[in-house]
Amino acid sequence: MPVMKFERSCGVLLHPTCLPGPWGIGDLGPAAFRYVDWLADAGVEWWQVLPLNPPGSGFSPYASISSFAGTALLVSPEALVADGLLRQPDLAARPAFPDTAVALEQAVPFKEALLRTAWARFTAAPPPGLAAEFEAFAAGERDWLDDFALFAALLDAHGGRHWRSWPKRLALGEPPALEAWRREHEGELRFQRFKQFLFGRQWAALRRHAAGRGVRILGDLPIYVADNSADVWARRELFQLDAAGRPTAVAGVPPDYFSRTGQLWGNPLYDWPAHRRTGYAWWIARMRRMLTLFDAVRIDHFRGFAGYWAVPAGAKTAVGGRWLPGPGRELFDALAAALGSLPLVAEDLGVITPDVEALRDGLGLPGMAILQFAFWPSLRSSFVPYRHRANLVVYTGTHDNNTTLGWFLGEATDGEREYLRRYLDTDAREVHWDLIRAALASVADLAVVPHQDLAGLGGDCRMNTPSTADGNWRFRLTGWMLGEGLQRRLADLVWLYGRSAATRPEPEAG
Question: Would you call 146 a catalytic residue per the annotation?
Fold first, then answer.
């Protein structure tokens, strides 16, 4: 199978919602363009993001209402003003947003109100050329956009309640009922398409700027989709559901280093024989969409394609699940036949068995190594740097880990701390830079560092704590975290360890 090989390079992990700005949540506006410039000036060639889909339960980007749509929360008000869809007075009602955290409770209704104002102005008098661009987008993306627009409009009309609680004819997608609802709510359906148009237009502009600065985007594809999603509602035949649309078994993982009782995700499981009968058409469409948004894609929970953990519906924990076979190489061969070379990273964490390694290596995909898991003294982890290989992506930590400083001071055992000090020959006073240096020095082709580690932030700044529902996805950068001194320090290490073709950066003064 043709795959993309990563050149030796460096990446930084930061979700766009974490960017600074005045609107309560990071977006695709001026701060995103400045962040690309900051990365490029540090010699960083990859910006890794989390899924850009509309967040669902708990604001998680991994529990989206659509695996194809983009989140309109990332739409930039400044860009809407520049396009003539908003005017400065429209922004005057901005709440007093905090600077240090994503303010979901205020940002969501504020952004929705701005988007409805933009829609009203667009329908009354669209700026030159924009109407034709919108119609071309709606026609070009119809295969996924029409189902999503209908689902999103129905979800709003029913107060955000799960689709199984809707009137039965709508919940089960009876064509006459859906067609009548479409006719009655055509304006709302067009508004949902319009929001996707704005996201797509602004994301494409940011991608062009990044490409011009030599920065590529590494996206993230969750293996599963949310139960309350357009994907499940519109394509129930592709999932393990009963006649009423209820899952017969749900996704999770067995106990591992993240949780003693495993992780009970609750997503519906795929009916893999049904996907096989269609030639994996839904997966091909999904991957095609991802490759229009990103330069490369990390596949979350890759091991689920070799074998997946099926938990009986209604279980309280994931402990009672069982392993069942996934589609294996057949799926990836179908993707490659339809799409060509696949620029993928396999997230191969958790319970990894020989069949998972065989699938990953047989496809030629890079796996992942997490340095926070490397220093168990009683077990020589495959993540310890001397065991790395070139076809690998090494991280200090991921969005599911604590920050490196938070881990070292709070979660690491005494044995791990001592082994780390000895292995890296350090006093660990700047343990985050110790691990950054180890990642960049690795033979792994790509080294990725969360921005929180660059800034030396503690555990209160982690992005997500697995198996917890509250307090996640709130982190935001503040100005000092984008300082020139930090940028120069990173640039020097990127150059030192051969992860940039740029000339050696000027050392920091003093």
Answer: no
DSSP state of 352: -
Distance, CA of 16 to chain centre: 10
Which residue out of 147, 220, 231, 300 is catalytically annotated?
300
Q: What is the pLDDT along the chain (510 residues), one digit of tens a residue?
A: 778 889 999 999 999 999 999 999 999 999 999 999 999 999 999 999 999 999 987 899 999 999 999 999 999 999 999 999 999 999 998 999 999 999 999 999 999 999 999 999 999 999 999 999 999 999 999 999 999 999 999 999 999 999 999 999 999 999 999 999 999 999 999 999 999 999 999 999 999 999 999 999 999 999 999 999 999 999 999 999 999 999 999 999 888 766 788 889 899 999 999 999 999 999 999 999 999 999 999 999 999 999 999 999 999 999 999 999 999 999 999 999 999 999 999 999 987 899 999 999 999 999 999 999 999 998 889 999 999 999 999 999 999 999 999 999 999 999 999 999 999 999 999 999 999 999 999 999 999 999 999 999 999 999 999 878 888 999 999 999 999 999 999 999 999 999 997 666 666 554
CA distance 505 to 399: 29
For this structure, is 400 an active site residue?
A: yes
Annotated catalytic residue: which of 348, 400, 434, 445?
400
Is residue 375 within 8 A of residue 384, CB to CB? The reply is yes
| 249-253/263-268 β-pairing | antiparallel
Q: Report yes or no: 56 and 226 within 8 Å, Cβ to Cβ.
A: yes
For the chain, give percent helix, strand, coil, nearest 5: 45, 15, 40
Does 256 participate in catalysis according to the annotation?
no
Of these residues, 45, 83, 347, 445, which one is catalytic?
A: 347
Which residue stretches of 425-499 are H helix? Answer: 431-441, 451-454, 484-496
Minimal CA–CA distance to 152: which of 236, 239, 242, 70?
70
Q: Give the Cα separation of 122 and 16 in Å (integer).
A: 26
Residue 198 CA: distances (Å) to CA of 86, 191, 316, 362: 13, 11, 40, 40
